[in-house]
Design brief:
Elements: H1 4-15, H2 20-44, E1 52-62, E2 65-75, H3 77-106, H4 115-119, H5 124-144, H6 146-155, H7 159-165, H8 171-181, H9 186-194, H10 197-204, H11 211-236
Antiparallel strand pairs: 1-2
Helix pairs in contact: 1-11, 2-3, 2-11, 3-5, 3-7, 3-11, 5-6, 7-8
Length: 245
């Protein structure tokens, strides 16, 4: 049973009076992502002297006749480096935030220090590998159609939380466990995402400043959902505590 309302109500209680560290962590994460994005924009506007060109040909039909039409595209090594940097920062900050909110869950009465967020960066390699695998498989499934891609995205969505909670686990095993945990809950996770849309739209009118309050709330609610899905999977015998070692 997926108790969306319960997870969200509990999240408010868990953050009450100790939201500062969560807000600071979200702010730093957004700052890093903005920095990576600015590097990407710089690479796109950089000199084409360092770029390589590729000829792309396709068949075009006109007046019942077919002919080849070709054009050139230029790609720069900087573009590829910037893309990987973007992806790396996204994965690293994701696993660091998951570690932080796992601590919030495990220590409901304690003041959480900013150092807990920094500890999550020790998992930087697994965060990077996780985002690579998740992005790759989601992309491959999206080639079939957009719906399978979205479904697989939710299927792998717990991978970062699994790694943050169990640092010794391998990325491939975390992906496998995430698929098992979310079986039967993917639509519930989708609906839970939709339940925050009102707040997301409202944040536009605050120039997205509201995100500093909203993202910790969302993260905490989804952490509660993860803990409950894990507990249910173990109770049903689908997974065992040993699977997380």
């Amino acid at each position: 049973m997926f108790q969306r309302v319960c997870y969200k109500k509990l999240a408010k209680k868990q953050l009450k009076g100790r939201r500062f560290t969560a807000v600071a962590a979200v702010f730093i994460s957004l700052l890093l992502l903005m920095l990576a994005s600015s590097i990407t924009n710089f690479s796109e506007s950089s000199s084409p002297d360092f770029s390589k060109t590729e000829n792309i040909a396709f068949i075009e039909e006109t007046s019942s006749e077919y002919y080849f039409k070709s054009f050139e595209t230029s790609t720069s090594p900087l573009d590829e480096i910037a893309f990987l940097l973007n992806l790396a920062i996204l994965g690293i900050t994701e696993v660091a935030l998951c570690h932080l909110f796992n601590v919030y869950f495990c220590k409901p009465e304690e003041k959480i220090l900013f150092g807990e967020f920094l500890k999550g960066f020790s998992l930087w390699l697994k965060g990077f590998l996780s985002i690579l695998w998740v992005s790759l498989w989601t992309f491959l499934w999206s080639l079939l159609f957009i719906i399978p891609g979205i479904v697989k995205g939710f299927s792998y969505s717990q991978c970062f939380m699994i790694i943050a909670e169990n640092p010794g686990i391998s990325v491939r095993k975390a992906l496998k466990i995430s698929k098992t945990m979310t079986n039967g809950f993917k639509s519930d996770l989708f609906v839970m995402c939709l339940s925050f849309i009102g707040w997301e739209l409202l944040s536009v009118f605050t120039l997205f400043i509201l995100q500093l309050w909203l993202i910790p709330y969302e993260r905490m609610a989804f952490t509660n959902a993860y803990k409950d899905m894990k507990s249910q999977a173990i109770k049903k015998g689908i997974l065992s505590p040993d699977d997380f070692k």
